[in-house]
Write a structure and sequence with these properties.
Blueprint (H helix, E strand, L loop, with lengths): L4 H6 L4 H12 L9 E4 L4 H11 L2 H6 L6 E2 L2 E5 H8 L6 H9 L6 H22 L4 H9 L7 H15 L8 E2 H9 L10 H14 L7 H10 L2 E2 L6 E5 L8 H8 L4 E4 H6 L8 E5 L2 H9 L6 E3 L6 H12 L3 E5 L4 H14 L2 E2 L4 H6 L18 H10 L8 H8 L23 H9 L7
Parallel strand pairs: 4-5, 8-9, 8-10, 10-11
Antiparallel strand pairs: 1-3, 2-3, 6-7, 6-9
Helix pairs in contact: 2-6, 7-9, 9-10, 12-16, 20-21
Length: 442
């Protein structure tokens, strides 16, 4: 008999048979070496079809079959089946791939290839990074495919080249080193995998724990003559008083608008700050509001997620004895940032409580709240879930609380005069009456 192969591969009742053959081929068995295959879950119709093709009249008369049932499934004589349907062994794999819908990947050969690849890369890493055994182990612990061999070699070679002559003298920028040793100035950016590997390498050579905070990472790299970007990221300071005589101190004292300081400013020639209460906020728009309110409150802005420059400012404030306050958005990210500032630097959180959320009323924002951090204050979390929306710092309730001028009528925004007949006991008024303004200059 010569069967219609397209019908055989399209028959869903025969799919378990082809799947079982696919598994044998993927395990590395040659098609001509598969004598039988045991197939679980064959339907009675499929078993009947196979037996009609394979069983001889004599077998049927004696009640015997070439495809007997076993405890593990139906045992199919594959060689006999191929002869019956007129399929040579070398055409078995294409037929099975069509039937199953995916190629056969020889797992045995793949394992051998992976083992050979790992041995080759391990020998290369041992030769290039003998001084970094922990890093070598970390690199080799990651799964590496044939396609990734070139990039892994590139990483090993670049790390070897950069770390061979630490510390770099004179110091060089991370971008320049990445350009010269890996051909890409962004190759070792700290957020990338190569960047993380470089940070781990420097920590291992220094015999120190691997840093996680951005400012600690940059400080450790700097100790070894590697200068991560110190210029592009800035913090904004407004109405912050200084007592030193450096150019940065003078800029702070003479400025009438926010002053941008970068990481180099804060680490090489840091200002000497006067005793004061420094309110740190998350969003630059709050500084715009401070100018609109004509606030004289010392205020700084970190622009969201804490970067190295933000940590440098906060640490400087703590080291110089300033009282710190922090206010951020009442959303999951803002609450997490606030918790970090509070726990790390001892800042007092302001304009971030349940009373403020209640005062925001029915119009906190249009943005759904999302999951809150597990350590969020339960009273605040309850009020936020009632509102169901994020409360951003741009909300008038927040701005009035931050910048309400002393002597202003309760409940009246410092920026506007209320309409005639407007009750002073608005939600903002009630909140301010309970919590007071923040125009405290220390």
């Amino acid at each position: 008999m010569t069967a219609d192969l397209s019908l055989l591969t399209a028959d869903p009742e025969l799919l378990p048979l082809w799947q079982a053959v696919h598994d044998r081929l993927a395990a590395g068995t040659h098609p001509a070496d598969i004598a039988t295959v045991t197939v679980p879950s064959l339907t009675p119709g499929a078993v009947a079809a196979l037996r009609s093709w394979l069983d001889t009249p004599a077998q049927r008369r004696r009640g015997r079959t070439s495809a007997p049932d076993t405890p593990h499934g139906t045992k199919v004589p594959l060689r006999a089946l191929l002869q019956v349907i007129g399929l040579p062994p070398h055409e078995l794999q294409p037929l099975v791939e069509r039937a199953v819908g995916r190629p056969v990947i020889n797992r045995r050969q793949d394992r051998l290839a992976r083992t050979t690849l790992r041995q080759r890369l391990s020998a290369h890493a041992d030769a290039q990074l003998p001084h970094l055994p922990q890093l070598r182990a970390r690199i080799m612990a990651a799964g590496i495919t044939q396609d990734e061999e070139r990039e892994t070699r590139r990483l090993i070679d670049a790390l070897a080249s950069i770390t061979r002559h630490l510390p770099h003298q004179p110091p060089r920028t991370l971008a320049k080193l990445a350009h010269d040793h890996a051909g890409d100035p962004h190759y070792f950016d700290p957020a990338t995998l190569p960047g993380q590997r470089l940070i781990a390498a420097v920590a291992e050579m220094a015999g120190r724990p691997e840093p996680t905070r951005p400012d600690h990472i940059r400080a450790q790299l700097s100790d070894h003559g590697i200068l991560a970007d110190r210029l592009s990221a800035t913090v904004l300071l407004h109405q912050v008083r200084a007592t030193g005589d450096s150019s940065i101190d003078r800029r702070l004292n003479e400025a009438t608008t926010p002053v941008a300081l970068n990481l180099l400013d804060l680490t090489r020639t840091p200002p000497r700050l006067a005793p004061q209460t420094l309110t740190v906020v998350e969003n630059p728009s709050v500084l715009e509001a401070a100018m609109e309110y004509a606030s004289t409150q010392p205020i700084a802005c970190t622009s969201g997620q804490l970067r190295a420059v933000d940590h440098a400012l906060l640490q400087l404030a703590v080291d110089q004895g300033l009282r710190l306050r922090y206010a951020g958005d009442l959303d999951p990210a803002g609450l997490q940032i606030a918790a970090t500032v509070q726990q790390t630097y001892g800042a007092e959180l302001i304009a971030m409580d349940a009373a403020l959320v209640h005062a925001a009323g029915n119009s906190p924002s249009a943005v759904p709240l999302g999951p809150l951090p597990s350590d969020c204050d339960p009273v605040l979390a309850t009020q936020l879930h009632v509102a169901g929306r994020v409360v951003y710092q741009e909300h008038d309730v927040v701005l009035d609380h931050l910048f309400r001028r002393p002597g202003a009528d309760e409940g009246v925004s410092s920026r506007a005069t209320p309409a005639a007949g407007h009750s002073p006991q608005t939600p903002t008024a009630r909140y301010l009456g309970r919590n007071g303004g923040c125009e405290d200059h220390g």
